[in-house]
Amino acid sequence: MANTRDIKRRISSVESIGQITKAMEMVAAAKLRRAQASVIASRPYTFLQTQLVSRLQKAGLETSNQLLEPGNGPGAYIVIAGQRGLSGAYNANILRFAQQVVGSGQVIAVGRKAKDFFAKKGQQIIGEYRLKYEAPTYADAVNILKPLIGYFRDGIIGSLHLVYTEFISVLNHRPAVVQLLPITGAVDTADSESYIYEPSPEAVLERLLPRYLTALVFQGLLEAKASEYSAQRTAMKSATDNASEMIEQLTLSYNRARQTAITQEILEVVNGAQALEG
Predict the structure, then answer these.
(1) How far apart are CA 33 and CA 213, in angstroms?
(2) Which residue has the higher pLDDT, 167 or 266?
(3) Is residue 161 pLDDT above 70, yes or no?
(4) Mean pLDDT, rounded, of the chain
(5) List of domains in the chain
(6) In the chain, what percentage of residues exceed pLDDT 90?
């Protein structure tokens, strides 16, 4: 059995780790609240844009838009993962899902974990992007998507998909994939009203489609970041709970070792006294 000094040293070490994980849990919880609010606030805007694109597609436009036509090049996939670890199985889950979806396609890696994963797999990476701030911005989505729209127009890629983690609740998030290009019918608006578009439906659609795609990418970034913070919070809470359980076990071992040492000392005193009486 370990002596009391070693056990006490281990208790002190585990307590320090528990304090760190508790602080990280609180930080992740604060970030999660802000990220969750951003996700909830952005969803209606994205959905209304989707409805508008659907209405325009159903308006019988007598023009063709390249972003609506299937391409001839290989498929490309924007894969959003974390920039760092300490988030439980978040990165492993999304990257395992992405590997199955991507197949032999080309990858645009968002986050260091995605880039490192696909580089080790020998996957073709045609783009790499790292978020500069903890909260994604609309400019991030613009910078990611702008060159990819050019690749699609030039025939370098034939389709574009977004692979991200959908935020459902604080304790629930799941990998998801969305087709960005070519743009297909998005949602059934179930709307019989007629609308007047100025200057024309064709002009509105031409201006709207890039903004619509950017909104989808931005929504994916927000969903992924909220999911990552949720996973970090859960992982740090689990680590803190494990530290507390380990401290209880070590404290019990410490008390047993201390009692054993005291009992041994008492026996030595008794034996010494008996020897003197004899």
Answers:
(1) 26
(2) 167
(3) yes
(4) 89
(5) 21-235 (3.40.1380.10)
(6) 64
